[in-house]
Design brief:
There is one protein chain. The chain is of the alpha+beta class and 163 residues long. The chain contains 5 helices and 5 strands. It has a 5-stranded mixed beta sheet with strand order 1-2-3-4-5. The longest helix has 15 residues.
């Protein structure tokens, strides 16, 4: 695989079935296939009507190598625009050729060109190959935070407390 022939492109609405397929691939890799419940209609709405995130697709010839999905965030303390890299996924048969490094470099190039100054992401704690890969690239692991979330039913429950 000649990594210089890897094409990174922004997705289009016609890519919705492919995006869904790629997200299912990541969910399977993360041992959470049951969590991938997003429909094509939901993906189309949020990605292309609401435009809340950007999806990049990596291709080598006519083969899809992987994808990345990111969205903007704002750092209030520093007053700068950042990117949260929600997903980055390379199919296993394309790993070990430099595709991941090249893909991250292209993401960096794209977000810098768009005016963003930082990128953050998270990784499952059991995913040692990815953690080691990010560390080899010089990524720093943030400490001192715990991440929290609310499901839709929990959001409704807390919102109902003020009604």
């Amino acid at each position: 695989m000649n990594i210089k022939n890897l094409i990174i492109r922004k997705s289009h609405i016609e890519d919705i079935p492919l995006i869904q397929y790629l997200i299912k691939g990541l969910a399977s890799y993360e041992k959470r296939p049951q969590d991938m419940t997003g429909t094509k209609e939901q993906l189309s709405y949020w990605l292309f009507e609401r435009k809340v995130a950007t999806v990049l697709i990596a291709e080598y010839g006519k083969e899809v190598v992987g994808y990345a999905l990111y969205y903007p965030i704002f750092g209030s303390f520093s007053a700068i625009g950042k990117i949260h890299l929600e997903d980055i996924f390379i199919w296993p048969n394309f790993r070990g050729y430099g595709a991941g490094r090249f893909f991250l470099a292209k993401i960096a190039e794209i977000i810098l060109a768009d005016g963003y100054t930082e990128m953050e992401w998270n990784c499952l704690d059991w995913n040692k190959p990815s953690i080691e890969f990010y560390e080899r690239l010089g990524a720093k692991q943030e400490t001192g935070r715990k991440y929290f979330s609310f499901t839709q039913s929990e959001l409704k429950s807390i919102a109902a407390q003020i009604s």
